[in-house]
Design brief:
This protein folds into two domains: 3-171, 3-Layer(aba) Sandwich (Rossmann fold), CATH 3.40.50.720; 175-278, 6-phosphogluconate dehydrogenase C-terminal fold (Orthogonal Bundle). The longest helix has 29 residues, at 172-200. Helix content is 53%, strand content 13%. It has twelve helices and eight strands. An eight-stranded mixed β-sheet has the order 3-2-1-4-5-6-7-8, with helices on both faces.
Amino acid sequence: MITLTVIGAGLIGGSLALDLKECGFADVVLGVDTNMLHADMAQQLKLVDEIVTLDEGIERGDLIVLATPINVIKQLLPDILTAIKPNQVVADMGSTKGSVAEVIREHPNRAQFVLSHPMAGTEYSGPTAAKSGLFEDKAAIICDADDSDVNAVDLIRRMYEAIGMHVMYMNSVNHDLSAAYVSHISHITSFALALTVLEKERDEKTIVNLASGGFASTVRLAKSSPDMWVPIFEQNAENVIEVIDTYIEKMQAFRQGISDGNLAEVYRLIREANKIQKILK
């Protein structure tokens, strides 16, 4: 019998609550959200069984999962770890890990906390975006596992496997660098492309009429919430800047080749880029 407390009843937290209740991993799901509209919607949509206060959620939850923006995770986590009992486990689902690990590195209850990141999501946010099956066949990263109690890590591993995820283990430093390359830069380039098109093309009807599948898939992430992504860029700034610099370098290479009429170089760059097929099959 597991009582799950989900702090943050939006896309990630709400989808987790749905799947864990559906598969029988959690018997009772408690929701905590300071946005009362989101809290009411989460209950109406039956993402959670009850909406409770943070204190009640901490008191009653066997497993407490933080599914809020990363800055909120860092703010809440030390007090949550201080309040929990010896048999409780806490995990976060944030997109950066290093700064979270640092906040609670010396906390006496550090072993009861598991750093994790389910590599899943959409461009939408809030309780209405939550959906069953969001995590199926995706990767879940558990970071710095040696700093957590073995039983706590096992519980989080089983939680992710119960919703169809395959679990990987990394240290938080390597995770944040990898996340910058495979996730964070995708959002930045999507935001930048959307701004570029909006600045150049003032007639929205023309954008809609000309937009095809390629453009729509490339710019899809530009719909993502700044409330989520600004804190991610802040907390992973060093890695994100490194990736942006590399991206600009590659864009400059394309610009130079096209500007010089050096089609052989442009061809070479595209062929090099085609090697991504070996990774993304």
